[in-house]
Amino acid sequence: MPAKVKRIATDTVGLALAHDSAELHVQGKAVYIDDMREPEGTLHVAPGYAALGAKGRITVCDLSAVRAFPGVVAVLTAGDIPGINDCSPAMGDDPILADGEILFHGQVVFAVIAETRDAARRAARLAKIEIAGELAAITVEDALEQGTEDVLPPYEFRRGDPGKLIAASKSTISDSFHVGGQEHFYLEGQVALAVPEEAGGMLVYSSTQHPTEMQHCVAKMLKVADAFVTCECRRMGGGFGGKESQAAQWAALAALGARITGRPVKCRLDRDDDMIMTGKRHDLRIDYRAAHDRTGRLTAVDAALLARCGYSADLSLGVNDRAMFHADNAYYYPAVRIKSRRLRTNTVSNTAFRGFGGPQGMMLAERMMDQIAHRLELDPLDVRKRNFYAPGRDRTPYGMKVVDNIIHDVVAELEKTSDYRARREAVRAFNAKNQVLKKGLALTPVKFGISFTLIHLNQAGALVHLYTDGSVHLNHGGTEMGQGLYIKVAQVVAEEFGIDPERVKITATTTGKVPNTSPTAASSGSDLNGMAAQEAAARIKARLVDFAAREWKVKPAQIRFAKGRVIIGNQSVTLAELARRAHQARIQLSSTGFYATPGITWDRDKVKGKPFFYFAYGASCSEVTIDTLTGEMRVDRVDILHDVGRSLNPAIDLGQIEGGFVQGMGWLTTEELVFDTQGRLSTHAPSTYKIPCASDVPEDFRVKLFASAGNPASTIYRSKAVGEPPLMLALSVFSAITDAIASLKPGCMPPLEAPATPEAIMKAVKAMSP
Amino acid sequence: MTARNSIRFLRRGEVVELTAVAPIRTVLDYLRLEEGARGTKEGCCEGDCGACTVALGSLKDGRLVYEPVNACILLLGQIDGKELVTVDDLSVSGKLHPIQQALVDHHGSQCGFCTPGFVMSLFPLYQSGAVANRKMVVDQLAGNLCRCTGYRPIVEAALAACTGKPDDAWSEARLEIAQTLAGFDDGTDLFIGDDEEFFAAPAFDEALARLTEKHPDAVILSGATDVGLWITKQLRPIRKIIFLGRMRSLREIVETIDSVRIGAAVTYAEAEPSFAAIDPDLAELLRRIGSKQVRATGTVGGNIANGSPIGDTPPALIALGAGLELRKGRQTRALPIEDFFIAYGKQDRSPGEVVAGVSIPMLKRGEAFRCYKITKRFDQDISSVLGAFKFGIAQGRITEARIAYGGMAATPKRALKTETAVKSLSLDDPAGWAAAADRLAEDFQPIDDHRASAAYRSETARNLLIKALTEMAGEATRNTRITGMREFAHAG
Ligand SMILES: Cc1cc2nc3c(=O)[nH]c(=O)nc-3n(C[C@H](O)[C@H](O)[C@H](O)COP(=O)(O)OP(=O)(O)OC[C@H]3O[C@@H](n4cnc5c(N)ncnc54)[C@H](O)[C@@H]3O)c2cc1C
Ligand code: FES
Ligand code: FES
């Protein structure tokens, strides 16, 4: 049981305020980068690539027709880059423009700069590029067969000797299955606008989760010092991990164009180009063997996560590590080995996507639970509960002890509120009666580790100004992609000053105000930036208190900030009045704030330490119906109970939970990435790649926040991160589909692969036919 | 007769008249690049995400009707005579429109990029005066993708705002707007440009005949739900466009006791009631074509003319035994619709010839119809397989059979061998059904693609026939399907 935490009374924190830009959103007045009034003379860039070929040397690159097209100002190739031709986050293996060879279909070979975007796009199609095609590895299987060199070395967690235990056990399971990738499909595609400044400076507006990385990438590409490049982002039209490293290439191309032409240059990708040229969620093949006892409790697990990483490393290290960190989900594996291979393929480099590998890892855990249950004909929920972490069974495969476990409580409550047992009976009765349609039910848990596993990223900075009219200017290193980070942090700052959040002016994230930032990722946005902003505000406040105590001759403890006023002993003044007087007295009304997450230690080489500050928990129960003649599937009802600690903003948190769940549901059902044998992505548009739409969301959708006493870890107002964990609640949909198919042949596990498209469901249905 | 050389539309209460209109100018580019109205977003530029949704007001049978459309693939010339409403117009001096306010109140936006499109998809529902229910709302929003919210708050906002009592600047000005639009309807032919590059929108048969004769190379345009993508995605250099949307003779629906004739330029939305009158499965089929936006502009004629093997209406029309009418110049000819589809990308249509209409026989006593559209996602998705079945049934036996599939061959195609095998089957002989269904393997050799494998297509095609027979044998569709239950349909 987690320790009791003290509740702090708050005025603004915890309110279900609307998103700070909600009124602008609904009026079309929220400005995204493509909506900004272009500076005079703005040019447009379009990327060009080879129509055919996934791997090989570029033998012909005839761009004469491109150059000759009316309106074209410049055509750029690798040789035009003054500095380093790389937009990778770390490994130096992502050329901005291909240099002599291409490694996946869709790799950018050149960029056209033209007076209009239309001219740039038309010109880009006129290139004649030929590739001396070599044998390309497209799938995980290709990579394994061809023995291509992995993008990164394998990695492993291990405890005990699972191999030996499994070999000796009478009750074992094993399988090999695929978990599909996922296109981010942020509604706003990749976009950047670069404006050249005097003396070699460059201002880059980029739709990115990682302005600092954009700054660094542009600086080294232009061969200028970081200080000469500023990157700014007010908002993104969605990110989901797809605008972390993947935004860099477009910012770089815009900046390169701006440098070469001396004019502002905008790069906004066409949707199809965006889908072809930018990385996606890693798809995996998961191979495993495991042993369990008669009650369905695991005794040993031996699993291999084989990830398609694409042609380069990108963020594959962290993503695949996180897949390993979540291969246990909420379950204890007594003896365990989790192996991970990071396979190189000639496909676009896979990248961060909400959950960052975690969802794929959890698929292993839930697959094993389902397999044990269906084989033993036990209720899968009972098997799950039996395997939960519990006192004495609380060490993860990577050695960290789970001390804040509330999964038993969360699941027990959801089991009750969802009426699981009665519905289990109803489902059984339905299936006994119906030939064509079959129902399935599943209740699955989520335990998700919070912190960047790359420890140094767990830091944030903020900058707060108090003006003499009592209004506040807020800035921090986190970016807004719709997740509501800005309003949450503004609530924290408003709380600190005791003012209405409307008095807090939220400003665009820029490397010029808060430097050396971490990406807004890993669900860490409000944990980190909330703390940093709170500290900045608290510092200003401390100076004011100090000043007021002297001026009014009261003790600091007698000064409070509330409702726009400052109560000083038995008098009160407006915050504006106090600010004005403090300013007269030459007190600084501006401060930075900084935060570094305490107590996390992770030594990757030694596989040792505590990578996570805490865990976020949740559970969901899904009921589905499948059509055994067509494989069509409908989600009938979903119940969710999710733990956000003490919510900073319940409306925003609810939005994250529902949105995350639906996105996860899409990943596991309708969203299918198909590459043809030549390595071309066939599903490169919303016409062929189907994310959930309104009618896919179950009519009966009951979502609740877990009544939490607060995060036992000392986070900002004891809240918990909420960006990623809810996505994995959707695993209950996949398990429910498995359950429905399992009803066709008791005692057997359906070989269902993800995504569970109608075709995948039919395949599993056929395999279960008597 | 002289043609009008400008387009006119109503915008923010003012008449906009444009004479210099590039034939392929889209409404979205017009708004964002020319007007500088950037509330309307581009998410995909191919009609699938709805971020670019704007509303068009037009008179239908004298009534002012608003419909959502995808500005990204709608050509500027197509809005002639209509009212164009965009998200930028809705709030009045800072006061949010009820739809906007409801979205704010229900936390209906996160990143906000999809939001203008949702607002504009809901705007027509609001104006319609309908008391919205959930089913209506999700159908209204099928063409709007949101990657952030999970839709629940948007649906709730819609339910809260669309209560059947429109009360805004548009409901107040209905009469005025209707008058202005009526005034636009001058019945003239429209021609902007010159012989080398033009946007033509004839109103009369004579003018159409003259244009198609003189410019057999011109692109015939109906709803642009295909042609729009040629422009935005394939970047085809189209210079001559003949738009059929103003052709009175092609926009008629004529219903008689035993058939309905639908003019080629009738939109899906306009045709829905006529299809529904034949059979509830057809109503559902129409409902599942694209989205409200696509159905507001896309036409039945376009769906046939483009000859796609995965178009939704052709297999159903083939099974129903529909007849097609083609017109070239002043010549008209008729043929059974299945004969129109010759091979992949090849139809029985010569340059300059237009599809004029389709005549569909009503179902007779003793005839039963079923059709099923199979997709990865229920709403706004293209079929991997579509099966359509019309059987004549007497004394529990099948006496007549017309079976057609989409997605199973290079064209929408009849299953002639299977039809033969099905005839004389008893409705209580499932073993016999299975044997007949096996004949599908002789009728079709489907292909693998990103929508489905050949194996899945074959298997599903077979199962759809079994499903149709199961249902015709009396099983309630709530036990045989998970969408489009017939028991809940009104018609049929
Ligand atoms: C988002 C989206 C979703 C879609 N969903 C579906 C779906 O679910 N089911 C489905 O079947 N289709 C779907 N489509 C495809 C589209 O609706 C059809 O292809 C449609 O029938 C085209 O009709 P249109 O009136 O828009 O034709 P246009 O785009 O105007 O023209 C299409 C073709 O037909 C020709 N043409 C049009 N009218 C005539 C005529 N009267 N005589 C001769 N030639 C003519 C044109 O020259 C062109 O070659 C979808 C399209 C989009 C963009
Ligand atoms: S931009 Fe996506 S539908 Fe128009
Ligand atoms: S709010 Fe982001 S896509 Fe809808």
Features:
heterodimer, A: 770 residues, alpha+beta, Aldehyde Oxidoreductase, domain 4, eight-stranded mixed β-sheet, 19 helices, 29% helix, globular, B: 492 residues, Uridine Diphospho-n-acetylenolpyruvylglucosamine Reductase, domain 2, DNA polymerase, domain 1, Uridine Diphospho-n-acetylenolpyruvylglucosamine Reductase, domain 3, 4 domains, four-stranded mixed β-sheet, 18 helices, 22% strand, binds flavin-adenine dinucleotide, binds FE2/S2 (inorganic) cluster
Describe this structure in words.
- The complex is a heterodimer of chains A (770) and B (492).
- Chain A is α+β, with helices and mostly antiparallel strands and 770 residues long.
- Chain A is built from 19 helices and 29 strands.
- Among the domains of chain A are: 22-28 and 459-596, Aldehyde oxidase/xanthine dehydrogenase, molybdopterin binding domain (Aldehyde Oxidoreductase, domain 4, 2-Layer Sandwich), CATH 3.30.365.10; 400-452 and 612-770, Aldehyde oxidase/xanthine dehydrogenase, molybdopterin binding domain (Aldehyde Oxidoreductase, domain 4, 2-Layer Sandwich).
- Chain A is 29% helix and 25% strand.
- In chain A, strand 28 (633-642), helix 17 (650-668) and strand 29 (700-705) form a beta-alpha-beta unit.
- In chain A, helix 6 packs across helix 7 (248-261), helix 9 (316-325) packs parallel to helix 10 and helix 10 (358-376) packs across helix 11 (380-387).
- Chain B has helices at 27-35, 98-105, 115-128, 134-140, 152-161, 169-172, 174-184, 205-214, 227-232, 268-278, 280-287, 292-297, 300-305, 313-320, 416-422, 430-438, 440-443, 454-472; strands spanning 7-11, 14-18, 53-60, 63-70, 83-85, 190-193, 198-201, 219-221, 240-243, 253-255, 259-263, 323-328, 331-336, 341-343, 346-347, 353-361, 367-374, 385-394, 397-406, 413-414.
- Chain B has a five-stranded antiparallel beta sheet.
- In chain B, helix 2 packs across helix 5 (152-161).
- Chains A and B meet through helix 1, strand 27, helix 17 and helix 19 of A and helix 2, helix 3, helix 4, helix 5 and helix 18 of B.
- Bound molecules: flavin-adenine dinucleotide and FE2/S2 (inorganic) cluster (2 copies).
